[in-house]
Design a protein that fits this description.
34% of the residues lie in helices and 24% in strands. The protein is of the alpha/beta class and 229 residues long.
Length: 229
């Protein structure tokens, strides 16, 4: 069974295009677990308009995108878990390529093609732009994991959940845990159109606004927690 975990917050502009790229790749017994963080636009109306029993809506009570994703993960039932933002587009072979790789790897992080707010290609792939690479120490210092490009087996959640209270982002933490205890795979093939519009929530979307000491502090925090999981 596959669970796609989506964190939403006022995502009406792109959400339908995102869902329309996901649902055809799922089977009847799979699920799309949506955690909403108090949207005030048409997000909930869009979700309800599908009348698809695979879409399961939950409401986040703690606020913030890290808790929102954690809430979705808490309610996921699948053996294979995919993370999804509310504004990208999955390529048609994303699910199959990732599931095939998860037969041998605890987690995967795949490449993506960058597009602008209107979906126009920017002529660069994410891995090339960010010089993406795996490795435990590399992930702690210069994260290459992007939640919207991640999928993993349920066993990763046994180590990663509950999230430590002060992590900067869900994708960095999941990447650190996968690197520490598993054999994650970086898939070079782009499997997603990654929309850049200045409001992305993934840790790798934009340059960090934290000071050097703040960045060092949260890295040490994740390092310590990864040792006891």
């Amino acid at each position: 069974m596959i669970s796609v975990c989506i964190a939403t917050y006022n995502g009406e502009r792109y959400l339908r295009e995102q869902l329309d790229s996901i649902l055809p790749q799922l089977g009847e017994g799979d699920e799309v677990v949506v955690s909403d963080d108090g949207s005030t636009d048409a997000t909930l109306d869009i979700l309800q308009s599908y009348a698809d029993k695979r879409i399961k809506l939950f409401h986040n009570t703690q606020r913030g995108f890290v808790h929102n994703f954690e809430n979705a993960l808490k309610n996921a039932s699948g053996d294979y878990i995919f993370l999804s933002d509310q504004d990208d587009v999955w390529l048609p072979n994303k699910v199959q390529v990732c599931v095939d790789a998860l037969g041998k790897h605890i987690a995967v992080n795949h490449n993506s093609l960058l597009v602008d707010s209107e979906g126009k290609p920017l002529g660069v792939d994410f891995f090339s732009q960010n010089r993406s690479a795996g490795g435990y120490w590399r992930t702690l210092w210069r994260n290459s994991y992007s939640g919207c490009c991640m999928a993993f087996r349920r066993e990763l959640l046994k180590r990663a959940m509950p999230f430590p209270s002060k992590i900067a982002s869900h994708d960095i933490w999941l990447g650190v845990v996968a690197e520490k205890y598993g054999n994650p795979l970086f898939i070079q093939e782009p499997l997603l159109y990654y929309r850049r519009h200045g409001q992305n929530v993934s840790s790798t979307a934009e340059k960090s606004g934290l000071t050097f000491m703040q960045q060092l502090s949260y890295r040490l925090y994740m390092f310590m927690f990864s040792l006891i999981r």
